[in-house]
Amino acid sequence: MHTHTAPVRRTQVERCCWPSSLRLLTVCALIAGCSAADTDITLDAKATLNHRIQSLDLLVFVFLLALTVLTIWLFKHHRVSWLHETGLAVIYGLIVGAIIRYAGTNTTLVHMQVEPQGIPTYNAKLPPDTLWFKYPVNQTNATKLPEGVKTYAYVFRGQVYDIEENEIDLKATFDPEVFFNIILPPIIFYAGYSLKKKYFFRNLGAILTFAIVGTTLSAFLIGGVMYGCVKLMPNYLSSSFTFLDTLYFGALISPTDPLTILAIFHDLHVDVNLYALVFGESVLNDAVAIVLSGAIQNYGEHYSNTGEFETTAFLRSLSDFFCIFFLSLLIGAVMGCFTALLTKFTRVRDFPLLESALFVLMSYSTFLLAEATELTGVVAVLFCGICQAHYTYNNLSEDSRQRTKQIFELLNFLAENFIFSYIGVSMFTFPKHHFDAGFIITAFICAALGRAVNVYPLSWLLNIKRKPKISSNFQHMLFFAGLRGAMSFALAIRNTVSDARQTMLTATSLIVIFTVIIQGGAANFFLNWLKIPVGVDDETEQLNNYQVHSSDGYLQDVEGGGGGRGKTRLSSGADSNLDTPLDGNAATATIAAGGRRRNSHEKAILARIWGNFDTKYMKPLLTHSRPTLLETLPVCCNPIARLLTTTQQLTQDGSEFRRVDSDSDICIDNDTGNGLSQDGLGVGRRNSINRMEILEHVQSPVSTRIRLLGFYGKKL
Amino acid sequence: MHTHTAPVRRTQVERCCWPSSLRLLTVCALIAGCSAADTDITLDAKATLNHRIQSLDLLVFVFLLALTVLTIWLFKHHRVSWLHETGLAVIYGLIVGAIIRYAGTNTTLVHMQVEPQGIPTYNAKLPPDTLWFKYPVNQTNATKLPEGVKTYAYVFRGQVYDIEENEIDLKATFDPEVFFNIILPPIIFYAGYSLKKKYFFRNLGAILTFAIVGTTLSAFLIGGVMYGCVKLMPNYLSSSFTFLDTLYFGALISPTDPLTILAIFHDLHVDVNLYALVFGESVLNDAVAIVLSGAIQNYGEHYSNTGEFETTAFLRSLSDFFCIFFLSLLIGAVMGCFTALLTKFTRVRDFPLLESALFVLMSYSTFLLAEATELTGVVAVLFCGICQAHYTYNNLSEDSRQRTKQIFELLNFLAENFIFSYIGVSMFTFPKHHFDAGFIITAFICAALGRAVNVYPLSWLLNIKRKPKISSNFQHMLFFAGLRGAMSFALAIRNTVSDARQTMLTATSLIVIFTVIIQGGAANFFLNWLKIPVGVDDETEQLNNYQVHSSDGYLQDVEGGGGGRGKTRLSSGADSNLDTPLDGNAATATIAAGGRRRNSHEKAILARIWGNFDTKYMKPLLTHSRPTLLETLPVCCNPIARLLTTTQQLTQDGSEFRRVDSDSDICIDNDTGNGLSQDGLGVGRRNSINRMEILEHVQSPVSTRIRLLGFYGKKL
């Protein structure tokens, strides 16, 4: 029985701003020195201090982001390509983290051991939610409470695992759940919302194979190998790891996050199929990994007591995995479709602000709904984003399309850079790191191994049936694109109660930092080395394959930016298609319809079945597209079909909305997409030039000019 | 000495979703019934439950907002004008609040009285930050902790005031600080960012008088009268109120929030000076009220022990008020100007996404900086917003201008509707309401009285010197526009520890609800009754006064929307100014320069001095405008002036950037402003018509068409 009172402990959540440190010291002095003052005032001062510390914490990150933004600009301005913004954010994060760690001031946390008043009768299975603690206050001002005793409430926080040293840090930099509830949702939603559906669907089979089979395979392989290696290590480490721990590590280190690579692909116009493979896989394997790690967690906590293999527990975890994944998918899809219906059958598009608000609210409610029903919000928003892009986007007014895209683009940018800064900062400030060189080296090797198992055998399998085969250079690039990022880190920092988990966090942080900076930086070089064709526009690729999509390619050219790399972009299709580029989508679709028979054999069967169903039933139901349900449903259903078909759908100009080939339906298409996307490199300048060139070509009546206005209005 | 274990208490933070209630019951059953299960699992289930409850809470509000959005659309669609969106949000909030209150399930909070372990030696002035509590766990699985005893940490929450009944509700719906840190900042920033500076500066004197003198006067009057009245009331009430309490009430009930009125003004094109008075005052008096109430709070807590009048304490509070107000103003202005410098001297505008991100980050860091230095963040972002609009906005790329405006517009819309929904919901769910009919009636009378004292005597004073006098009808309208809103509620709910404060919260909530619904609904009728001229465009007003601003008015016409009220908008200036409307600002400015001598005597002296300084030094320094510093600074400063002048500033076309009269410099001007603002009523349709009409007029060469494209690109 001993009373801990005010043992001085460091909490590393500190700041580096000098004026505030001064004020901080003042308040500390106030707290320490005012023996005659009222406890209320000191408490008040302390609450103020806490608020200010929180503000400062956030301020550090906001400044860090602002600094990153300015440096990215400098880099882009001077055409530096060996460091991407996420790498930069990590590096700045590391620097600031080190400053905070070694130059920051300390605050102390005081704790006291307590016991129940009177005879402890525990009739509940749970510790109480709050403790009430009577504290004698030697105050002179007796007007407020005559006894001089105040009762304070204390809220349940969590278990203290290691009483001697590594106690729970109650001022942790950020609650890890922040990532799952605030930072990741906009990133994942934007990934879904900006998915290039055209090539995504064409490569659906390969993407699903890599994402679902590959990630699972990689997780189990890494888990197994790591377990073997760990057992060969010194005792203190091997005793703290169970197989479930290493399996969890396998699941969290498997998802890839090739932001850097994709930015470079985008700038260099790398082959679209490669782009689709890398992007599609990285989006979906995030979803797989979060559900997989949840299932592994459940296996350990609920179904199995021993940590060894048990068949029933395994089956329950497996069903968990599939249930949660598909129910989350369902919720996301249903909410997306519901938004599409709302925007189709109301005229809310007359008021773009209301429409945008509705869009944002419905998307956010998808996340909340999934979380409230114990599903995975992040997976739900991913599929919600895909549905919003595929259906709702078509119903939105021009203003809302642009506004929603711009908002989510900005949110995505800020969230992404925040999380990478935080990875850097937390390397120094997060109190629960546990460095172990052996584990870290093994983890690096296993991460590479896991990626290799994901890419090579599956590519070989896919190549058996696949028409445009995945060449070995593409396979190497896929392997190389296996950077680890936000999702791995968020999963690793979520649970750091045991030594094993802390070791895993440290290894994960280092892998993320290393891959983002080194692999991200070397991507350009690697592309050259592997002789991956760059500057391959949609245009070229399509002209080679089908000789039809020229107008689409032309549009992408005009809009794609490409940083003034000096290539002659106004090429081939331009002159012959002088009229069609004005509404590129329709033109593409019409032309694509002609080429459809030719390329349909190249599409995956899955994509073809879905494409047919989508064009015949889903799109007519959820958007204003043609053919209407009146045409596609059997005659007996005509009354219902009429009810679900809007007047607009019946009366509109067929050429504008008819999209025969769902494959070529890029909802977030190039004409609005690229001009506003990640880099926006020199778009302003290029546009003004191209616009003039087009104007000099076009000698058409007023109506065309209006279409021109409408078209160019979109991207300005 | 007694042990409270599991006394069943209602906490009113409940939800209404049936499937979730079912699941909730399941988990509750699980918690209660699993005597053999592991405590860890139960704790885990409880944590999950808590997370789900939070998600559900948020979900309720998100659905409420979505419902509000849809209903607003219906109302606008059917041209219902007697209920504004904020009124609607309040009404829906009340309904949902009632449902939650009377149909919700209950969760129970368990608390336990504890005492220090061993001999309590309190050598600190403060209660400890955390309590460590050893809890015996009758678990069978002894692998984890052999003793069967776990230590849990409890975090300090706050004082328990009334042990018997009204104990601290640890599951309060939302932490009131959420309003000051998340909800209010975007609202206030947007108010500053969208301030119509033209008429704002012309009416600066009146606005400052109403906002600073008026609000203070009103606060003290209400405080005094309320104190007198309260002392006449039954003993239990009169004993709980001090003069400081009623003064605080005066300060929090004084700021006005005429959202509804302004929306109607905007739709009906009410006289611009009246609009500027109402808007300018409401923006500034929020800032005054928050600082004033902070000073009163400080007076009570820090400077005075008795609650009676003390000269030194009063003087210290007074200096607090001025210091905090002007330092916050300064931080906001400095950060705004710093952003302007950043955007002027870098070419970050080549990358609109980076530029927008920088803008958002700098604006948010203003708030954090002010909070971290113990100033008032809300006041800082207000002035930051004004500076961003006045300077930075001019440096931004077209894309960023639109993006930032759209983002903050949407944030403002969501935040506003959220807070009004919450006012409705909390009327039923917030546990600390204290109804007292006498106090509420007195509060209503005093609120009206305070508004009257604010408007009538000050108008009389102002009319002595003012050139366009404030007519008595305008004064009645000003009085009537005194709705109470978000700021009053946020200040009232911030502190609810005493009976007095709870009574004040209830009265404030009711005043807000009443004024928003009833006064807001009657505004249209009242406008007619007072014969306030509506349909007064800038155009008409300006044509009458100066006969020059026609092109500006014309632009506003084209863009203003006005909901197809059928007025002939393409009038007067249109044909004669076929060329100038294309860059309306420049045209306005140039013409205004001619009319300047004529109208300068009508401007307030303050505005004139500031305008000169601004045009000569601030704008050349912070934006790309002309004249440059080389022209305005004395010759000896030429080297510095050259350094601060960009090449763009020297080489650009003078007519585009020369803004002689800062008064006519509407940064957020009508051509981009109104088209995207609050209602967006029928803008899409109108634009397409007008665009065609203009196109039929314009028969000019390619270069003009490009300017056309640039101009229309802005608002699409």
From TrEMBL, chains A, B:
Domain of life where this protein originates: Eukaryota
The protein, known as: Sodium/hydrogen exchanger
Lineage per the UniProt record: Eukaryota, Metazoa, Ecdysozoa, Arthropoda, Hexapoda
Record keywords, A-Z: Antiport, Cell membrane, Endosome, Ion transport, Membrane, Signal, Sodium, Sodium transport, Transmembrane, Transmembrane helix, Transport
GO CC terms in record: plasma membrane; recycling endosome membrane
Compartment annotation: Cell membrane; Recycling endosome membrane
Annotated signal sequence range: 1-36
Coiled coil: none
